[in-house]
């Protein structure tokens, strides 16, 4: 008699006989012993005008962008109003999740250019569930042949990612304005040494008024992240893109977000936000005068004093913008159901979901920061995706929860009327040997039996509040018919650094900045032709 298998909760740790015991934080994250957290990188689309207080400014003697305020004299960069770039959120699924085939469809030329039956079996799909085969009980959104194009980009109709996304978005109002692309790209399994994280590049994906690289910028911070690492997530950032000046600050809960705009007890003493700002400005002037009378007797005396002055200026700037202003996701009726009696629509998360799952709380914090304009791009790292446990149900449950988090971001963007680029990646992938899991959550699909870097892929979805998104192409590179990445199909297919540059290229194309790419990034050579860049681009500029 077969031994009854114990079903694993989505937060249960994964123990593999062929894996060494976890010893680093990265190991603990990918095997689900600890939960992941979120990261953001600054700025987006004038979202700061959601509160009239945010349109005010410090006194001109302290900050005069067109003149000679203290901030300009000491070259102290205050937060400003953020940039005009599309908000960007990426999901870092730590451990090597399945993306291609059983979730997002991949093919030999397009997602619907089918692979062999053996190839789909390797990607976890038995012969009676491959694209093109009629379904016995199709879902409401399925095309009836194990494909689903509700989100524009073709998914398998039984994709757990898709199910989770559709649970959280308004299928009638939001889904028609979503589309996406898949990027077949091999990456190593279970390692943080894959330089997957594109955040530093997104922050430089454009040109500012001074002619310097500047992409997504924000009103509060530049980068915050799930871990105290150079990338802020599980996977590394490409070494050539790292900028120590914007190294991420760790954030993993709503209180960390609200803490970034904390004005101390001033708001309890002073009811008028203008009074709070006046007090903070006075502190700047007093400290500035005091510093003028101090001699540190150090060679870099001026630099040290200016760093102190800049710290006080930034504190005053934060107070000016956020005194008596809440950016707590737990108080947003669009996010949490029932917390705002004036909100007519149900919140994206129920109170029980929000209270009971740290991944939902983390997602809520990041998406509010990014989409509301306090930050421009963010990473949400989720652990436990090393799920080749000899069954299918474990991975399905975890994919479903990740899909719900993705759907929450897309739906919040829709409710706020903002565009969004949502990017999903994982370090490596998994494969099936064809054994079937007929459990309730396994649903007759192939069990994940081991790591397999050749089945890896990444994908991104784009939401446009102004109407449908028309793709140039929905697949960049391709798979062989046997279910593995053709490593010569694109520059990204066998080089994770170039995968990151491909994602950044597509972000710049959405912003209408593709012509600026060669002057900022050099992974494709010093002077790649427009035709070559176009061949790696899925969408033109959003309207």
What are the salient characteristics of this protein?
single chain; two-stranded antiparallel ribbon; alpha+beta; 543 residues; globular; 8-stranded mixed sheet
Please characterize this protein's 3D structure.
The protein folds into two domains: 403 residues, no CATH class; 82 residues, no CATH class. It has 15 helices and 14 strands. Strand 11 and strand 12 form a beta hairpin. The chain is globular and about 80 Å long. The N and C termini lie far apart (61 Å).
The main pleated sheet reads as:
8 strands, mixed
Q: Assign the structural class, choosing from mainly alpha, mainly beta, alpha/beta, alpha+beta, or little secondary structure.
A: alpha+beta
Q: How many strand units?
A: 14
SS strand fraction:
5-15%
- In helices, the fraction of residues equals 25-40%
The unreliable regions are: 37-56
**What would the principal axes of the Cα set say about the shape?**
globular
Cα radius of gyration in angstroms: 24 Å
Summarize the helix and strand pattern as letters: HEHEHEEHEHEEHHHHHHEHEEEEEEHHH
In which order are the strands of the major sheet placed?
A: 5-14-9-2-8-1-6-7
How far apart are the first and last residues' alpha carbons, in Å? 61 Å
Which quaternary structure do these chains form?
single chain
Mean pLDDT: 85
Tally of separate domains: 2
Number of helices in the DSSP assignment: 15
Topology summary:
Layout: H1 25-30, E1 38-41, H2 70-73, E2 88-93, H3 117-122, E3 147-148, E4 155-156, H4 160-168, E5 178-184, H5 199-203, E6 223-225, E7 249-250, H6 254-259, H7 266-269, H8 273-292, H9 301-322, H10 351-356, H11 358-371, E8 377-382, H12 393-416, E9 420-426, E10 430-431, E11 436-437, E12 445-446, E13 450-451, E14 457-463, H13 496-510, H14 517-520, H15 530-535
Helix pairs in contact: 4-12, 8-9, 11-12
